[in-house]
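We were asked to recover a plausible sequence for a given structure. The inputs and outputs are reproduced exactly as logged, with field labels preserved.

PROBLEM: sequence recovery
POSITIONS: 466
GIVEN STRUCTURE:
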């Protein structure tokens, strides 16, 4: 029997998952060579090819395969199958958003996820180990196990190993924060907030069945629901805020939320939401900042400065008296103002440091300085003032670094379904447009570095107003 190693050679891929049969020059002059299945299998074994041998391909070699069909795959390994990641199945709806249907009620924008004691919140599925593979040399290839879920039980939530499920220990509001299930109890005030309760600082949701008078502050780890009005008070919520009537801030009141804000009106106040702001009526002489959208579909924005990253939808902007009104898209105008103030302070301090440096150099170069107590005292004051201003400069730089000025003005839009009056300033990032005359039913957006205005139309073509 001929030695097949003279006529063929085995080539494997780097991962040893495929073995190919190549011919040598000697095979070209010995095409009438007799090859048997046993000899081929023995040749593969001599080359340590012991797994995944493809018998059908070996039969082709025995019966005489054309030269152009080489190289021939004679063995294939088995790839390892990675394990499935663990997953979580929710048994309640944690999403506070309400789908906007045709008959959408403005007051149904926010839904607080509520659970009862011992109610099942979610169930986890453990990850699988996967299936190992084998290369053509017969070596075992371990599989990559799936990753477990990172969700954990937080406040007022327990996890049971028996059914791999999370349960609520109390009745309250359920949410997911920082990969933890929490259930926050609700603190309720049955009427208008008064000295009986004082300022409120609560880990869960706060419900006020009345007004919040001037001077009070409310801080909630969950949501805040107020069924009356808010005066010159301070409301802070790590969830959402709902105010049935509105904010009469007297230039002192403010509402801040990490989620959404739904409110009847805003008058002389400050309103900030990391996500959306819904105002049922009007915004008058106020500052409002929305992380994504600001909706004032039935009211007006007058004498105010409002901003939203993605969308401002409003009925009227300004008034017949051309009261100055500003709308900023894509950025937070309050942070822009803060950055400008900090940069101005930074320049002042840098100028002061330059002057102090010159003074210090002159004092240090003064002759007989060490024998002059007055000069030594002046130099000490200069160094103390220099160090103090240096600390202030570092503090300002830290504040500037902490303010994220991400700009999304290219995708932002301003939609006005009613009237747009003069003396309105519309800003998209660094691009501004002053409205000097009145328009009706228009949209504004940033196109090719210009603030474009177009009429709202249902027809395929729209007239662009420059």
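RECOVERED SEQUENCE:
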């Amino acid at each position: 029997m001929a030695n097949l190693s003279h006529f063929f050679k085995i080539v494997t891929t780097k991962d040893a998952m495929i073995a190919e049969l190549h011919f040598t020059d000697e095979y070209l002059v010995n095409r009438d060579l007799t090859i048997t299945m046993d000899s081929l299998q023995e040749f593969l074994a001599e080359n340590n090819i012991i797994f995944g041998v493809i018998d059908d391909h070996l039969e082709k070699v025995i019966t005489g395969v054309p030269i152009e069909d080489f190289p021939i795959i004679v063995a294939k390994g088995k790839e390892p199958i990675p394990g499935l990641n663990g997953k979580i199945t929710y048994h309640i709806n944690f999403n506070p958003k309400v789908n906007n249907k045709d008959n959408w009620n403005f007051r149904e924008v926010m839904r607080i996820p509520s659970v009862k004691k011992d109610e099942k919140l979610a169930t986890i599925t453990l990850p699988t180990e996967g299936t190992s593979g084998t290369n053509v040399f017969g070596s075992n290839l371990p599989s990559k196990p799936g990753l477990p879920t990172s969700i954990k039980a937080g406040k007022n939530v327990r996890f049971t190993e028996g059914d791999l499920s999370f349960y609520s220990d109390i009745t309250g509001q359920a949410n997911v924060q920082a990969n933890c299930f929490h259930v926050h109890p609700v603190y309720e005030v049955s009427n208008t907030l008064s000295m009986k309760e004082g300022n409120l600082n609560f880990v869960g949701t706060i419900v006020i069945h009345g007004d919040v008078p001037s001077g009070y502050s409310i801080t909630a780890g969950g949501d805040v629901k107020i069924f009356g009005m808010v005066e010159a008070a301070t409301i802070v919520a790590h969830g959402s805020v709902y105010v049935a009537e509105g904010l009469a801030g007297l230039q002192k009141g403010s509402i801040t939320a990490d989620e959404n804000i739904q409110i009847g009106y805003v008058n002389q106040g400050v309103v900030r939401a990391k996500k959306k702001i819904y105002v049922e009526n009007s915004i008058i002489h106020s500052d409002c900042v929305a992380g994504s959208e600001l909706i004032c579909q039935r009211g007006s924005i007058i004498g105010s400065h409002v901003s939203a990253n993605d969308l401002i939808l409003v009925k009227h902007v300004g008034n017949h008296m051309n009261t100055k009104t500003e709308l900023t898209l894509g950025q937070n105008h309050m942070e822009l103002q803060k950055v400008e103030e900090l940069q101005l302070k930074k320049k002042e301090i840098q100028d002061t440091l330059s002057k102090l440096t010159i003074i210090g150099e002159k004092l240090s170069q003064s002759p007989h300085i060490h024998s002059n107590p007055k000069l030594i005292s002046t130099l000490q004051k200069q160094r103390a003032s220099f160090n103090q201003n240096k600390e202030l400069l570092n503090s300002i730089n830290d504040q500037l670094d902490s303010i994220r000025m991400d700009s999304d003005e290219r995708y932002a839009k301003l939609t006005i379904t009613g009237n747009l009056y003069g003396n309105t300033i519309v800003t998209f990032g660094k691009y501004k447009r002053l409205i000097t005359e009145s328009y009706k039913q228009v949209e504004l957006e940033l196109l090719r570095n210009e603030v474009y205005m177009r009429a709202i139309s249902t027809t395929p073509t729209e007239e662009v107003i420059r």
